[in-house]
Structure formats: C-alpha cells, structure tokens
Amino acid sequence: MKKSVILIACVFVVTGSFLQAQSASDIEKYWHQWRGPFMTGVSPDGDPPVEWGETKNVKWKIAIPGKGHSTPIIWGDKIFILTAVETDKEGQALDQSSEPQHGRGMPLTRTTKIHRFVVMAVNRDDGRILWQKTVKEEMPQEGTHEFGSWASHSPVTDGEHVYAYFGSRGLYCLDFEGQIKWERDFGQLSKRMNFGEGSSPALFGDKIIITWDHEGQSFIVALDKKTGKDIWKVDRDEGTSWATPYVVEVNGKPQVIASATKLIRSYDLETGEQIWECGGMTQNAIPMPLTADGILYVMSGFRGNALLAIQLAKAKGNITDSDAIVWKHDKDTPYTPSPMIQGNYLYFLRGNNGNLSCFDAKTGTPLYTAQKLEGMGNIFASLVGAKDRIYVTGQKGTFYVVKQGPEFATLAKNILEDNFNASPVVLGKQLFLRGYKYLYCIEEE
Q1: How many domains are contained in the chain?
Q2: Residue-number span of the structural domain to which 40 is assigned
Q3: What are 105-120's pLDDT values in tens digits?
Q4: Please, where are the H alpha helices in 102-148?
Q5: What angle is formed at CA 371 by the lines to CA 366 and CA 374, rounded to 5 degrees?
Q6: Residue 85's Cα: distance from chain center in Å?
C-alpha cells in the first residue's frame, strides 16, 4: 500500500481508538461506519471500477428483504445490513387526531402493518446471506417521507460486535454470529413534518454516541459499548435534526460535534461538558460534519444555504462570527447528501440535486461551482471518494464517476435497474451499492 506515514498518522486521529491498533495494510478491510474508515467518505486504498451496469462488472447481486436505506458496513469478509420487513399482521390503529398539523399534506408513508426489524450478515465474497436476526417486531407509530424508510440508520462495528440502531425501535448490540448481547429503548421520536428518522450512531473507543433531536425533549447520550448503559447524557435545546454525531480529536482530546438547526455544539467525549457552540445552519440539518488539517466543515441546505469552516484549535465558548470561523459560504450547499474531502479539495452537492461544487478546503476559494450532472434526479446518498475519483449516486439508479481535482470532468455515467438512497461503500477493488431491492457488489471482471 502506497501511503505515507504522515497520512496514516493524521487519519487515525479522527477514528475510533480500536482502529489505531490496526496496521495500515489492514485499512482496506474495514468500512465500519456510515462515512467510512475515517469519517470523510473516502476509501484511502479503494480502486473500484469506473464503469458498470447490470451486465458489466457485477460480481454478485442479491435481493434484500423488506426496505431500508441505511448504508451497509463491512468488517473483513462480513457485510452488515439493516432492513424493515413488513409482515401480514395488523398493528393497533393510530390515533392521529393529536398529531402536529405541520405533518399534514407532505408526501408521507404510513403503515398499519407490524414490521420485523432485521440485522443481516452477508458474505462479502459471494453474497451469501450468513444470518438474519429479528431484533424487534412492532408497527411503526410514526410516518416517514415517501423517499424514507423505517431502517435508515446505519450500524457501526468495532470488529467484535455490531451496534444496530433503529431509532424509535431501539439500539441493539449483537455479536458476529447474530446473538443479541444487550439492547436499549430510548422511546418514540417525534420528527418535524413526519419526515422520518435517519441519524446514525458514532463509535469511538468504548463509547457509542447518539443524538436524539426531535420535537420533544432532545438530548445527546454517550453509552458504554459493553453494557449499553449511559456514561453521560445532556439535554439539548434543539428541534429536529438528522446529522450524525462526529468525533474528532483536538489537541489530543476527543470532541463530539453535533450539527443542528439552532446551534452546532461540541461536547467533551469523556464528560459531556459543552466546549463550544456556533449558530449559522439552516433548518433540517442533515449533512455530517467532517475535518481536515484541524478545520471542521459543517453545512446544510434546506430553506437557505450554509457552509462554515471552523478552526477547531480556536473554538471555545460561543464562536458565532468569531475568528474561529476561517471562511464561510452561503450558496449551493447540500440538503441531504454529506460532502467529502480529499487532499485540499472539498466537494459538495447543491440541495438534493446533481450539481457538484469543488472548493479549496483551506481558503474557501471556489474551483468550480454547481456543475450539472445530467439525468441524476434526486440525490440522497452522500459523496464517496476513491483513487482519483468521486462516486455520485442518483436515487433513480444513475451514477456518475467524476475526476477529482480543481477542474470538473466526468469519467463515466452508469445505470442500474434499482433505486438508491443508501451511500456507496468502497473496499479495495470492490464497490457496494445498496438499492431498494438489491445489494450489488461491483468489481472488475
């Protein structure tokens, strides 16, 4: 593997401590959380195909029962997937008379059927289903957006256990054979406009962090990964958000960054004490923050546009409009898809559309803005990078591969016969794509 010692050292700073013990040559075996091994959306040694289709470079393709938009995770030869499977059993009818009126008139999905909430393990080499474990049977009490699902939270793993989070259905710790070791029930989320759930847990060292932002009492909690018990819990004056918490080390101490509509907040990972806060995001904060070279990038794009680049070493107290803000931008930022960063380039989409921008990450200088990827339609999946390429996933099954760098250039446009909301996963020569119906393994023939 041709990676410098400096790069590996810097990258390990923003990963869970369990990965620090792994050798650099093992990195290509793990995509243990939603945004990849380093929470940047980048596979440092990935080199998957540029071109594929239903009859080209598909190593295997398997049907996935039920419906779920959570991104798969991988450890070694095992792929872990969450899904919600509708049964033919009727649940108890809902009393919607007291439901918030802001949810009415939106493109929602509801159900009266009991669902099985399932964790699956799949063999990475051939797509065989190794096991399926139903962790809960329940009728979802909440609605979800027509493009959403009741299994949109991505799991995390430390190589020994899988931590499968289903939001209002709870958090479950399973071993690699599918046996439940512990579980937690946090109650019922009440999401703004009934858009559904989707924030994933973060795993760092011995702690699992969950952000519970909704129209009730919001909070952030750190759990002991061995027992599921609270280590600390802090109430938040916050409404609905969907951003996954992000852990980064600053001067040797890990902080948890939680982006939301009212404020971006940073908490001490060990104690839960708030370190700093900053305003500036739009409503419905969804994209996950990311860092490079000590700068934190936070963005949102619903009913407005916001991008803040924050110097973490200077962040303490209320940093809104302070010199801790290195640069900011207020145009063409993403609503749902998270950005990615590689080298000195920061990439992000506009809204939920196929308009790609590239900025100099340190200075905020636009290198190109809102370049149109034709025929993409809606985009809910986040950007993923590998080699010298960016992989962009369209909801209707159209994929673009774009050349990384300061000049915009498309390398390929690919199509699959499925719909896709989950983000891509890259490991080595393989690209994994989770659709509404199928899981694809893409590899050069």
Answers
A1: 1
A2: 35-60+337-445
A3: 567 888 999 999 999 9
A4: none
A5: 170
A6: 22
